[in-house]
């Protein structure tokens, strides 16, 4: 609920409903109380709402650093983007079907002509073209045949650009309320121009790979140095990394999201990367000296809705990286993220691992905890303790239910921990987590 109360969603809801509200007087004039006119009005309403959702989905693709904070984070934006696109797709199909049924009482041939007029009526055929393209690029997101390949999915999503243009070609000649469609069209087209045309040149920072530290068998820390302007960031944020190493077996020129593991005070940008796919596998052996582009930063992981509370950190797998950045920030700046001016603030990190062999970064985190009284680090090994339990938390951190909670790790771990906190009476507004599931 916390994420949905962000100010960005109020603006989105207004822009989504405004075309429908402006068209209401015109729709009421068309309605005479009969079945046919009722269907026509309903078809008009579904078409207007579908077009608004489609343009807002395109607008949300802009991915400007900092803008995501107004929507509760980039993963939340992608969720709304997907829902808006899917809603537009369903409503467009409903729009066409209901229009056909509205013409049936007059004549079946009239219904056919309404949906499939002569080719001179190009706005209608533009609408069919937009729907056809939506079927093509939205189909893989339904995952009927498994999870789509990330980069192929992104390439296929380029069809959203001609889809939007065809939809606008359908709307402008047929719809009223011209000015609101101009506003929405400018937002959508501007977002797509930035995302696909300008941001690769104006929105990225050029870095050089200066080191690759192997942490365990399938995890490395890639270290990067800016070649020009340095990207400012906060602990716990993430970036899109685009490696340009020509020797990579996969992923050259492809962007993928990774969490920053370094402190904002560090001159070197450090990113922990686990072998989870073709691109991340290739990055295990990226060549020092090669170029990598960074876009970001994104996220607000250490957002403080209750600044008077201490923090509870729970990390699993590669989800430890935002906490490594937070701990390093503590070491470098001697303050917890979001805790400037609070000398009594502290955090307790529980490192959830399979066993001590896989506990990468743990030695460094324990060392930071030993030298800073405001950070406590407790390892929890599944092989020895089983799943994390409320009893284990209370034993090592008796006031855990009173703290503000930050979690990052596998989805199953997050779900398990949330159940513990719900049973312990922790309000959901004090539970923070971030999952990279953008498909």
UniProtKB/TrEMBL annotation:
Q: How is it placed in the membrane, per its record?
A: Multi-pass membrane protein
Q: Where in the cell is it found?
A: Membrane
Fetch the PROSITE patterns from UniProt. FAD_FR
Q: Which GO terms describe its molecular function?
A: oxidoreductase activity
Q: Where are the transmembrane segments?
A: 41-62, 83-104, 124-144, 178-194
Tell me which InterPro entries the record gives.
Answer: FAD-bd_8, FAD-bd_FR_type, Fe3_Rdtase_TM_dom, FNR_nucleotide-bd, MRET, OxRdtase_FAD/NAD-bd, Riboflavin_synthase-like_b-brl
- Output a single Gene Ontology CC term carried by this record: membrane
Pfam families named in the record: FAD_binding_8, Ferric_reduct, NAD_binding_1
Q: Where is the FAD-binding FR-type domain?
A: 202-304
The alphabetized UniProt keywords are: Membrane, Transmembrane, Transmembrane helix
What is the name of the protein in this document?
Oxidoreductase
Q: What is the species of this protein? A: Natronospirillum operosum
């Amino acid at each position: 609920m916390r994420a949905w109360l962000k100010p960005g969603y109020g603006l989105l809801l207004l822009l989504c409903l405004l075309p429908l509200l402006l068209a209401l007087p015109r729709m009421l004039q068309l309605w005479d109380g009969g079945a046919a006119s009722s269907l026509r009005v309903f078809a008009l309403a579904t078409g207007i709402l579908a077009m608004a959702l489609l343009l807002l989905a395109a607008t949300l693709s802009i991915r400007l650093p900092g803008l995501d904070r107004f929507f509760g984070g980039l993963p939340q934006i992608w969720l709304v983007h997907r829902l808006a696109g899917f809603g537009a797709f369903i409503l467009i199909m409903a729009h066409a079907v209901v229009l056909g049924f509205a013409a049936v009482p007059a004549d079946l041939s009239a219904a056919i002509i309404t949906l499939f007029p002569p080719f001179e009526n190009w706005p209608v055929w533009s609408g069919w073209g937009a729907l056809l393209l939506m079927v093509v690029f939205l189909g893989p997101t339904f995952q009927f045949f498994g999870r789509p390949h990330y980069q192929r999915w992104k390439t296929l999503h380029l069809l959203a650009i001609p889809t939007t243009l065809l939809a606008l070609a359908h709307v402008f000649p047929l719809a009223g309320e011209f000015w609101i469609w101009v506003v929405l069209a400018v937002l959508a087209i501007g977002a797509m121009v930035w995302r696909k045309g300008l941001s690769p040149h104006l929105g990225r920072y050029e870095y050089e790979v200066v080191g690759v530290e192997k942490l365990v068998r399938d995890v490395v820390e890639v270290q990067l140095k800016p070649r020009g302007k340095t990207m400012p960031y906060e602990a716990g944020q993430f970036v899109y990394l685009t490696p340009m190493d020509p020797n990579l077996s996969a992923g050259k020129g492809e962007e993928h999201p990774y969490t920053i593991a370094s402190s904002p005070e560090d001159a070197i940008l450090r990113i922990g990367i686990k072998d989870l796919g073709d691109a991340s596998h290739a990055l295990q052996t990226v060549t020092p000296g090669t170029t990598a582009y960074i876009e970001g930063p994104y996220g607000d992981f250490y957002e403080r809705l209750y600044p008077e509370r201490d923090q509870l950190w729970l990390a699993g797998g590669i989800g430890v990286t935002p906490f490594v950045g937070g701990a390093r920030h503590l070491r470098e700046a001697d303050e917890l993220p979001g805790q400037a001016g609070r000398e009594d603030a502290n955090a307790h990190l529980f490192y959830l691992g399979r066993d001590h062999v896989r506990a990468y970064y743990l030695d460094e985190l324990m060392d930071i905890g030993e030298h800073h009284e405001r950070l406590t680090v407790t390892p929890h090994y599944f092989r020895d303790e089983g799943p994390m339990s409320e009893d284990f938390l209370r034993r090592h951190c008796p006031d855990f239910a009173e703290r503000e909670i930050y979690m990052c790790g596998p989805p199953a771990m997050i779900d398990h921990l949330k159940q513990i906190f719900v049973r312990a009476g922790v309000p959901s507004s004090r539970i923070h987590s971030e999952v990279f599931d953008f498909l």
